TrEMBL record:
<feature type="domain" description="Obg">
    <location>
        <begin position="1"/>
        <end position="158"/>
    </location>
</feature>
<dbReference type="GO" id="GO:0005525">
    <property type="term" value="F:GTP binding"/>
</dbReference>
<dbReference type="GO" id="GO:0000287">
    <property type="term" value="F:magnesium ion binding"/>
</dbReference>
<keyword id="KW-0479">Metal-binding</keyword>
<comment type="similarity">
    <text>Belongs to the TRAFAC class OBG-HflX-like GTPase superfamily. OBG GTPase family.</text>
</comment>
<dbReference type="Pfam" id="PF09269">
    <property type="entry name" value="DUF1967"/>
</dbReference>
<protein>
    <recommendedName>
        <fullName>GTPase Obg</fullName>
        <ecNumber>3.6.5.-</ecNumber>
    </recommendedName>
</protein>
<comment type="subunit">
    <text>Monomer.</text>
</comment>
<feature type="binding site">
    <location>
        <begin position="314"/>
        <end position="316"/>
    </location>
    <ligand>
        <name>GTP</name>
    </ligand>
</feature>
<dbReference type="InterPro" id="IPR027417">
    <property type="entry name" value="P-loop_NTPase"/>
</dbReference>
<dbReference type="InterPro" id="IPR014100">
    <property type="entry name" value="GTP-bd_Obg/CgtA"/>
</dbReference>
<dbReference type="InterPro" id="IPR006074">
    <property type="entry name" value="GTP1-OBG_CS"/>
</dbReference>
<dbReference type="InterPro" id="IPR015349">
    <property type="entry name" value="OCT_dom"/>
</dbReference>
<feature type="binding site">
    <location>
        <begin position="212"/>
        <end position="215"/>
    </location>
    <ligand>
        <name>GTP</name>
    </ligand>
</feature>
<dbReference type="InterPro" id="IPR036346">
    <property type="entry name" value="GTP-bd_prot_GTP1/OBG_C_sf"/>
</dbReference>
<dbReference type="GO" id="GO:0005737">
    <property type="term" value="C:cytoplasm"/>
</dbReference>
<dbReference type="GO" id="GO:0003924">
    <property type="term" value="F:GTPase activity"/>
</dbReference>
């Protein structure tokens, strides 16, 4: 099933914890520390797959996690690194932070592979903490935490030409005649439920890609009808071709249709109407020569101030298709613009670190106990052996470096007062 917008949770792998161990060998009375380092957590990676044109695979699984690093082992053995997780997406997929809507990556152009979340660093084993005064450190470093974020995946098709028109004007028939696409064709509204991409091959000239945007209706930019769901797919196109029913077979006014579609495009994104436009007047096969001239003259006169080219065609008989296609190619060549690639606005390695690894609070509860909390505090407690004198001094120095001892003084702490941190309680003495 076609899907062009999904919300999922992605998570990198946690780093493996460092190991605490000591050499225990025959004839070695007091072996030194030999705890190995933890393995690095796996990265969460997005990669373009040219064979995909939908985000449908993400509709059934809403959470994706890379592998965690293994804990270090004794005898200085390094824990195994966690496996990377590679998520494959169609070219043109935008990855946004779900909370802010900011762009993390645009999987377009040369950006075919992107590490979105790096795995946590493995923790150091106790062998790294041995010093001349602390020859038997009884603590190791925990692995760095995994990063997790909810993202929106949004597909914006990459095509040179956007084919815009109201339902049932012949866009699908046209696409099936001039490209390798095989859209469903029938005589009822909203036949096209998904955007169709097709490649036009021209003799003696480089071809181009056309995207058939499913039927727009008046009010689409406000969310009415199906067209709103697919307006995003016209944003990357370089030329817009208006497909109109010149014969008014269903009583529609083709001139009014062009104006209404341009209004919807401008409401959605004002830049869309600044793109070069061409009018393809379809269904001329049901008109007499006199009727053709009358309606074409009327259209040309109406849009003369906008310098819009009008090409009479019949998607059914093939009349005028060659002329239209070469006109599109000529317009593309004269209006060479770089591919639209969206800049990164959200940097997980910065934003998530700020959220998860920094900051602390010093408060006083109703019993007069001074409470210290914060992610770094909790982490440090996790890999510090507070029951050992060296470990306690190590942790106290950490509190001093972070300015937490000064904050306790500012909060009015006195000798003998109680300090609580995640289940640990201490008596304070300056």
């Amino acid at each position: 099933m076609f899907s062009d917008k999904v919300k999922v949770i992605i998570r990198s792998g946690k780093g493996g914890d460092g190991h605490v161990s000591f050499r225990r060998e025959k004839f070695v009375a007091n072996g030194g520390p030999d705890g190995g380092d933890g393995g690095k957590g796996g990265d969460l990676i997005f990669q373009v797959d040219e064979g995909l044109n939908t985000l449908g695979d993400f509709r059934y699984n809403k959470k994706y996690s890379a592998g965690n690093g293994e804990t270090g082992k004794k005898r200085n053995q390094h824990g195994k690194n966690g496996e990377d997780l590679i998520l494959k997406v169609p070219r043109g997929t935008l990855i946004r932070d779900a909370t802010s809507g900011k762009i993390i990556a645009d999987m377009s152009g040369e950006n075919t592979r992107k590490i979105i979340l790096e795995g946590g660093r493995g923790g150091l084993g106790n062998q790294h903490f041995a010093t001349a005064t602390m020859q038997a450190p009884n603590y190791a470093q925990p692995g760095k935490a995994a990063k997790e974020i909810e993202v929106i995946l949004e597909l914006k098709l990459i095509a040179d030409v956007g084919l815009a028109g109201f339902p049932n004007v012949g866009k699908s028939t046209f696409l099936s005649r001039v490209t390798n696409a095989k859209p469903k064709i029938a005589n009822y509204h909203f036949t096209t439920l998904v955007p169709n991409l097709g490649v036009v091959d021209l003799d003696g000239s480089k071809g181009f890609i056309i995207a058939d945007i499913p039927g727009l209706i008046e009010g689409a930019s406000e969310g009415l009808g199906l067209g709103y769901q697919f307006l995003r797919h016209i944003e990357r196109t370089k030329v817009i071709v208006h497909m109109i029913d010149a014969a008014s077979t269903e009583g529609r006014d083709p001139i009014d249709d062009i104006k209404k579609i341009n209004l919807e495009l401008s409401k959605y994104n004002s830049d869309l109407t600044k793109k070069p436009q061409i009018i393809a007047a379809n269904k001329i096969d049901v008109l007499t020569e006199e009727e053709q001239k009358e309606i074409l003259d009327k259209i040309k006169k109406e849009f003369s101030h906008e310098n819009l080219q009008v090409y009479p065609i019949s998607a059914v008989t093939g009349s005028g298709l060659k002329e239209l296609l070469y006109a599109i190619k000529d317009t593309l060549d004269k209006n060479e613009t770089p591919d639209l690639i969206y800049e990164q606005e959200f940097f997980p390695e910065i934003e998530l670190n700020n959220e998860t690894e920094t900051g602390h609070t010093v408060t006083v509860d109703k019993d007069g106990v001074f409470v210290i909390e914060g992610p770094q505090i909790e982490k440090m407690l996790g890999y510090t052996n507070l029951e050992a004198e060296k470990g306690f001094l190590f942790f106290q120095n950490f509190l001093k470096e972070k300015g937490i001892l000064d904050e306790l003084k500012e909060a009015g702490i006195n000798d003998g007062d109680t300090v609580r941190m995640y289940g640990w309680e201490f008596d304070y003495y300056d």
